[in-house]
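Example record for the data management plan.
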Amino acid sequence: MTNASAIAVRDPWALVPPIGNLDAYISAVNRIPLLTQEEESRFARNLRDNGDLESAGRLVMSHLRLVVSLSRQYLGYGLPQSDLIQEGNVGLMKAVKRFDPDQGVRLVSYAMHWIKAEIHEYILKNWRMVKVATTKAQRKLFFNLRSMKQGLKGDAAEGQTHRSTLTSAEVASVAEALNVKPEEVLEMETRLSGGDVALEPQNDDGEESYAPIAYLADDSQEPTRVLESRRRDALSGDGIVRALDALDARSRRIVEERWLKVNDDTTGGMTLHELAAEYGVSAERIRQIEVAAMKKMRKALEPIAG
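Corresponding structural encoding:
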């Protein structure tokens, strides 16, 4: 029995520690022996013909180091390597499921496409909140522009001032190499060079911590504000009319003169003393009638305000 065949049959994954401990994980997968071509073909046929999951586990386990190796190529995007490895492992399992040993290629060559495809998809979804690449041409630019820019800068003469942008000639060169339009190169370079902006304030400096959330949010459509606005409109419209109808004629006149004509630029409202003289009572009595009327109005408005 070969070393590869000696992997634990019932639980082949027991040899691999949790990916949370990245160093231990990488060390463990690098110690898993590789399969010979004969063993690989035998396990692949057993999986294809019999659906044997044990054989699938052997194939996946022996290629975990490939995922680790490929994940290192994408560390420049600022995403955790453990996440890249997890996504790559998904691609590896898809490759194992679809692998046909009778096609005359080794699994390592076939799996590379699936591993990279899963990692690419993960990067595009998580590198930024706003997608930077959606079409096939944009994806090609996304994953090749950075390395091509570095190559162009490396070919520049020593002592030349560092430039973060491409010249017209460099744009044309990249466009020709990737078979895309020059304007697409410029657009993707702009997307890649633009920094992310935090939506929420990153400190507690009060007015100094003015973040996009402050001016992007539309408070007018916030549900509680909409309800408050509707309630306020109801109170100031039909609600006031209903409340006034609950008063006797004198109380209504006093409330209207004291509260509903204060903004009337032509006549304005009457004072307590003017109303007292009209009704032949004291100003204090007018004030008492006003207070009682306001209480009665508030009670009439309660069903609307509730």
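Summary line stored alongside the record: Residues 228 and 263 are 24 Å apart (CA to CA).
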